[in-house]
């Protein structure tokens, strides 16, 4: 059924919150407020908008996806919405049997972390981060 959205050129929106693997009440409250502000600005909902930030439209192809190169224990050094610089180490992956760092993920460019995995275990080729360029307009 999902394919019909794309076949008929329907506009769709994705909602990202700051946590994906655990309950995050503050993040959930932020997401609810963001949805209400968005629906209010689209004149779908009559809602008094207080505070918050103006939404930015990002296309998936504008995000740089960083994937793990190994499986193991995932130790992130940054979180969603952090600014990062090219070459900065974003995470270590540690072999759970030996405790040795088997891989590191580094930022390929300056940007802002749009998504950061928050589960402590990672499989090879799993998305760890999505970064948007700081110069995005």
Structure summarized in a few sentences:
With 137 residues, this protein is of the alpha+beta class. The protein contains two helices and eight strands.
Q: What does this 3D model show about the protein?
A:
The structure is a single chain. With 137 residues, the protein is α+β, with helices and mostly antiparallel strands. It has two helices and eight strands; from the N terminus they run ααββββββββ. The strands form two sheets. It has a four-stranded antiparallel beta sheet, with no helix packed on it. A hairpin with a 6-residue loop joins strand 4 (89-94) and strand 5 (101-106). The radius of gyration is 18 Å and the shape is elongated. The chain starts with a helix and ends with a strand. The model has no long low-confidence stretch (mean pLDDT 83).
Index terms:
137 residues; four-stranded antiparallel beta sheet; 28% strand; alpha+beta; 16% helix
Q: How many E strands?
A: 8
Choose one word for the global shape. Answer: elongated
Give the mean pLDDT. 83
Strand line-up across the major sheet? 1-8-6-3
Main sheet summary: 4 strands, antiparallel
Helix amount: 10-25%
- Measure the end-to-end span: 33 Å
The helix tally amounts to 2
| Binned strand content | 25-35%
User: Order of helices and strands, N to C?
Assistant: HHEEEEEEEE
What value does the Rg take, in angstroms?
18 Å
Uncertain runs are none
Coarse structural class: alpha+beta
């Amino acid at each position: 059924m999902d394919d019909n959205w794309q076949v008929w050129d329907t506009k769709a929106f994705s909602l990202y919150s700051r946590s994906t693997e655990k309950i995050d009440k503050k993040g959930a409250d932020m997401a609810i407020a963001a949805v209400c502000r968005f629906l209010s600005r689209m004149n779908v909902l009559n809602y008094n908008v207080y505070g918050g930030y103006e939404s930015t439209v990002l296309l998936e192809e504008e995000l740089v996806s960083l994937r793990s190169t190994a499986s193991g224990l995932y130790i992130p050094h940054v979180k969603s919405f952090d600014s990062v610089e090219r070459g900065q180490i974003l995470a270590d992956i540690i072999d759970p049997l030996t405790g040795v760092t088997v891989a590191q993920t580094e930022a390929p460019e300056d940007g802002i972390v749009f998504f950061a995995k928050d589960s402590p275990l990672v499989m090879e080729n799993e998305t760890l981060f999505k970064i948007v360029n700081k110069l995005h307009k």
